[in-house]
Specification:
The chain is of the alpha/beta class. The protein has helices at 2-8, 11-16, 151-181, 185-196, 204-241, 243-261, 268-281, 287-317, and strands at 19-23, 30-32, 35-39, 44-48, 57-60, 68-73, 82-84, 100-103, 112-121, 124-133, 142-146, 149-150. The chain folds into 2 domains: 2-151, no CATH class; 195-317. A hairpin with a 2-residue loop joins strand 2 and strand 3 (35-39). The radius of gyration is 36 Å and the shape is elongated. The mean pLDDT is 81.
Length: 318
């Protein structure tokens, strides 16, 4: 309701306002001497003051009810320099609320908070006005934000970016390693020279065997890498799902392996079994997790098939 009243004032008032005073009343907003008076019997929810570019001061009347006020966003009020917690009495309205100020870091040393503190002078208690920088007072809780986001959100985003960078670095290292293991152009050229040199006494069976051996040599690390990836996915999933559910995961993988080896992709019974175990496992594992494991297993089964083919070719040559 308070935000609606703030939104509803004219653009001229918004530009001219230097002081917003929150008052306890049902009256419509009023404006006088650059002071905007916002009336409400109960202030609640969230208040954003970014519409007031020249705002320099905020104050609260003593009888304002703000117990349900959640936050006041002053992060875009660059000219704001003072917050008056109570206009005359000792106790301030915000004392019983859970209201947070949403601010930018620079405002910690820019905005002054005015309040009253009980002091004893010559045996007599008096309430004295006190002034403290926002960053040095403990009466008003605040949350740092930047570009409309809370600091915690920004830190979380930075953490995600750092993780993404680390993953990219790891991928780069893997590519470097694979590149080191891949025959260079000069090595291929050397092989061509050997094959087509007029001085070379060619033994095609021997050459075929050596080529197959080279292919197998460079194929094995790739296979082992994929195998390790699948093992890790399965291990992580079993730890998350628990011992009993882990057995169902083994059965799921066993069925998919059977479907692959027997070429039963169109077998409704086999596919039904596969779906049934997936449904059971989704009590503990996400659908995407299961699909990632199944996809990785399919990839490994194909690689395993190719590996057996290469190994059998090598045996035939021998």
């Amino acid at each position: 309701m308070a935000q609606e009243k703030l939104n509803g004032v004219s653009d001229d008032w918004k530009k001219q306002t230097k002081h917003i005073s929150f008052q306890n009343s049902n009256s419509a907003p009023s404006f006088s001497d650059n002071i905007l008076y916002i009336y409400n019997t109960v202030f609640e929810g969230e208040i954003n003051l970014s519409q007031f570019p020249n705002l320099r001061r905020i104050s609260f009347a003593n009888n304002v009810t703000v117990n349900n006020l959640e936050s006041i966003d002053i992060s875009e009020n660059k000219e704001l320099s003072k917050i008056v917690l109570n206009e005359s009495a000792a106790l301030y309205p915000l004392r019983n609320s859970n209201c947070n100020l949403l601010i930018k870091e620079r405002q910690l040393s820019q905005v002054v908070v005015m309040y009253h503190q009980l002091m004893y002078v010559n045996g007599t208690s008096v309430w004295l006005e006190k002034y403290k920088l926002l960053g040095q007072q403990e009466l008003l809780p605040y949350v740092l934000i930047e570009n409309g986001k809370k600091l915690e959100q920004l830190e979380a985003e930075i953490e995600k970016l750092n993780q993404a960078i680390a993953e990219k670095d790891q991928q780069i290292e893997s590519l470097k390693k694979e590149n080191e293991e891949t025959p260079t152009l000069s090595q291929f050229q050397e092989l061509v020279d050997i094959v087509f040199s007029p001085n070379t006494d060619l033994d095609f069976n021997k050459l075929k065997k050596e080529i197959k051996g080279l292919k197998l040599k460079f194929y094995l690390p790739h296979f082992q890498k994929e195998e390790n990836t699948l093992k890790k996915l399965i291990t992580d999933a079993k730890e998350k799902a628990g011992t009993n559910m882990g057995k169902f995961l083994d059965l799921l993988l066993q069925i998919q392996k059977q479907i692959f080896e027997r070429q039963q992709e169109n077998d409704s019974f086999a596919q039904g079994q596969l779906s049934a175990y997936q449904i059971i496992l989704q009590e503990k594992l996400d659908y995407d997790e299961l699909q990632k494991i199944l996809t990785e297993q399919k990839k490994l089964l194909k690689l395993e098939q190719q590996l057996r083919f290469l190994q059998s070719d090598e045996e035939e040559i021998e």
